[in-house]
Amino acid sequence: MLHRVIGWTLLVVLGLLRPGIDRFDRWLVSTCWNVPSQWNAVADAAIRTGVVDAELGGLRAPWRQASIHPAGDSRIAVIAVSDLHRARVTFIDENYQDLGGFERVAAEPTLVTDAARGYKPLSHVWPIVSREGRLHTLIAFAHLVSEEPNAGLFAYVAVGPERNELLFVTQLSWGPGPTWGVLAPADLNRDGFEDFAFYSKGRKDARPIASFVWDPAGRTYLAAIDPSAHGLITWWSTSPHDQVVVASGELLDDAVRKVASRLIGK
């Protein structure tokens, strides 16, 4: 009986001390946010303190990676844990608050990260934009090979604490010649919202051959496509009547591929 009482007492004491221990653990790695070579220590602290779940399918993921990115006036840590077949991505702020995330299939390790240029196609390609309580960014479903998006499947996603929403999905292709284009972010009408520009052969000093401008009232992207872009870019955009919402525990890949199958069928 005495041993049981002592055991329960220790559990209660540890429970009371745990928040302080977690804060101390995070404080120890606070300087690591500023040093890219030490960013993975932030991932370790987030995992140790229970902010990030490192288990996939009941087993601890053998691979983890963190990267730190500006978002407005603050910074965000993007933490990915993976067994190189499945991955979980979590976005946290400097107070280690979970801002949202998603799970993905990463059948090939090269899709997880492009070490040559630092791209993280698994979690984001473009800078992360914080807007209306969600994080917006472009995510790749194709190998970038140290290049900007010019071929393959891409999705612009709004990430939230409980659910994510697909805002834009596009399939980029090469034509004969070769003819190709690069997708780039741009505030084309200077309203503070991120739009998309598609430039022929990456010539950003020229007029884009396709543009997609966000319409806040209609909650959709309005397209202006030059005939020269036909066959190079296929796209879908959300609308109030055609939303695609993905719960945080569901695979993002499944939802994007369903939309992509509709694109191919056009």
What does it look like?
With 266 residues, the protein is α+β, with helices and mostly antiparallel strands. The protein has one domain. The protein has helices spanning 2-28, 39-48, 109-112, 252-264; strands at 55-56, 59-60, 63-71, 74-82, 86-93, 98-105, 129-131, 134-140, 152-159, 163-172, 181-186, 195-200, 210-215, 220-225, 233-237, 244-247. The protein is globular. Residues 5-18 have low confidence and may be disordered.
Distance between the termini: 72 Å
* Alpha-beta classification: alpha+beta
Strand content: 35-45%
Catalogue the unreliable spans: 5-18
What is the compact description of this entry?
The chain has 266 residues and is α+β, with helices and mostly antiparallel strands.
SSE arrangement:
Elements: H1 2-28, H2 39-48, E1 55-56, E2 59-60, E3 63-71, E4 74-82, E5 86-93, E6 98-105, H3 109-112, E7 129-131, E8 134-140, E9 152-159, E10 163-172, E11 181-186, E12 195-200, E13 210-215, E14 220-225, E15 233-237, E16 244-247, H4 252-264
Antiparallel strand pairs: 1-2, 3-4, 4-5, 5-6, 7-8, 8-9, 9-10, 10-15, 10-16, 11-12, 12-13, 13-14
Key terms:
about 270 residues, alpha+beta, 6-stranded antiparallel beta sheet, 4-stranded antiparallel beta sheet, 4 helices, about 20% helix
